[in-house]
Design brief:
35% of the residues lie in helices and 10% in strands. It is an alpha/beta fold and 197 residues long.
Length: 197
Amino acid sequence: MNGLESFVLRNRLAQAGLEPSVFRYPSTQADIGEAAAALATHLHGFGDGPVHLVGHSLGGLVILEAFGARGELPQGRIVLLGSPVQGSRAARAVAAWSLGPHLLGRLAAAELTRREPRTWHGERELGIIAGSRSAGMGRLFADLPAPNDGTVSVDETQLAGAKEHIVHDVSHTGMLMSAVVADSLVKFLGSGSFGRH
């Protein structure tokens, strides 16, 4: 997890008995291979126990790359939050501007505009949480199909091979502050299931 925006979620995870750690990567200068290699190095620093991963938005793509390109990483579960694993309509619209790729940054411009479908073949159980509250900047750049979280549409978060996918009434940024999302996240990290009602 990256940045101050995840503070509330990290605090909720800590209250649930987990020990959140922040991984930062340079999304404007690095490419996804460099960011994924840095993540793999970071994970090796935790030793032999299970290490769960939570990636919001672009961070989820870095996680997928790290596990797709490397074996021998610590065991654990993965949850992606609002990650546009199938690319981003909003990012493609921005990338079409003359300065668009520069504004997006190197990693985002390459990974969010790709059209090749991603799949998950990793051994780790992977869950995905998407949002359906359409409140975000992405709507200013592209006509996002419903449901969407204001930045990423739910269909862009679908990933073949994921164990579970759940949609909550939250926006792209709001999911980081949502108690409901935190509850689903804790359930999946603990049991491999979001525990649908």
